[in-house]
Specification:
The protein is built from four helices and twelve strands. By secondary structure, the chain is mainly beta.
Length: 267
């Protein structure tokens, strides 16, 4: 049981890191209305900092899930389950515009995740509720997602993103993406602030992190179809902490590289 819980926590942490870094597991194109059911399952490895701001990297196992049921009713276009977004509903997808709501597990942060976190206490786990609006035109996609975590840091993040996908032949596609994240004071204080009590326990200087832009990122993702069902994917990118997040004494390194490799099966 302990091993199962540990694996679940590691997978949840990887999925949260995936969402925080803006790595989308789903294809950049919209749903295929001719298919009521579609699913892509796979396994991957995410290489990312031990925590946001760490100068040490770790490898996390990651389930790659993208399952969708196209309902087709007005106001209820699709039900989906993905690694990045969790369980959600797409309300509509009209003329390239789409709107969706989803809920996902947020494992928080453990003070044992890094030496500099010791004495700060844990950021407890919670549930993240997210609303996502997007516009697609050919290979371009613009997205705006607002997420509210209930429990843990109890904060809000707003993520703006842009991407372009180009298809090279029938098997290989490449997606370039960029994004920026704004966070409210609750989130910033929970992950980057240091209270007087935390300062005494940890030895870090007291620090108040206010609301503002938290990070910006760029990434490149390649997908290669091995056949009708099997596929490979890889992502490399970097995230730069900004503002009060970058200046926090919790942060060891402002520049946060990440990479993901995985194999998937679609049916």
């Amino acid at each position: 049981m302990t091993i199962a819980i540990h694996l679940f926590q590691r997978a949840a942490l990887a999925a949260t890191s995936l969402a925080a870094l803006g790595i989308a597991t789903a294809a950049a194109q919209g749903p295929d209305p001719s298919r009521r059911w579609s699913a892509t399952l796979g396994v991957g490895a995410l290489v990312a900092p031990e925590y946001e701001g760490s100068d040490k990297m770790e490898v996390l196992p990651l389930p790659l899930i993208d399952a969708r049921w196209t309902v087709g009713y007005p106001g209820l276009q699709q039900v989906f389950l993905t690694t990045e977004q969790g369980l959600g509903v797409q309300f509509f997808d009209i003329g390239g515009f789409s709107l969706a709501a989803s809920v996902n597990y947020d494992p928080g942060r453990d003070q044992d995740d890094g030496d500099r976190l010791r004495g700060l206490g844990d950021v407890e786990a919670g549930a993240n509720l997210r609303l996502t609006a997007a516009y697609r035109y050919q290979g371009f996609r613009l997205g705006l997602a607002a997420g509210r975590t209930f429990g843990g840091a109890d904060g809000v993040q707003v993520d703006g993103s842009a991407s372009y996908t180009h298809q090279f032949g029938s098997r290989f596609s490449l997606t370039a993406s960029a994004g920026v994240v704004w966070a409210d004071s609750n989130y910033m204080e929970g992950y980057f602030g240091v209270s007087r009590q935390q300062s005494i326990r940890s030895g870090l200087a007291p620090y108040e992190a206010e609301a503002g832009f938290k990070s910006a990122r760029i990434a490149l993702t390649g997908r290669y179809a091995l056949g009708d069902h099997w596929g490979l994917r890889a992502t490399v990118g970097v995230s730069q902490l900004l503002g009060d997040a970058a200046d926090s004494p919790v942060v060891e390194e402002e520049l946060q590289p990440f990479a993901l490799v995985g194999i998937t099966y679609s049916f």
